[in-house]
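Q: Got a minute? One more chain.
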Amino acid sequence: MAKPRPFLGLLAGVAAGLVASAAMAAFQHRAGKLLPEDGKGEDPATVKAADRASEALIDMPVPEPLRERAGMAVHYVTGAVLGGIYGVITEYKPEASAGFGGAYGIATSALLDEAAVPAAGLAPGPEDTPLVQHAYGAASHLVYGIVLEGVRWLIAGRR
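A: Always. Here it is, folded:
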């Protein structure tokens, strides 16, 4: 096995995470049109997270004209952080790229959509979420994982 390059892995992962987040957002924009209207009027978890951060910092939620942008910032920061983690992990454990990043994408779906986000009170629990939403989340994160690996591979090469 080649010597790990954690710094390159981190940089490649962060860059790939940003691109993968954009791909995921594009997928969600298109696929979201196919979902039932139930629950579409509610703020996404990313906007709720931005509100929490804003309330902690300035004791008020994100102002209305900035809510969508703040939610997207949370989405991209999360994607970049998860991408950086992935980039470092793949330097030490190339098998982490199983399924051309698809396994990591599904793992992020399970970790975030199914566990962390509901535990933080930003979305309903898995048992209160329609099956179509679970599939939408898993597919979205699968897109993220595959694009993440593709871009990471272009920057850092195969491990």
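A: The chain has five helices and no strands.
Q: Perfect, thanks.
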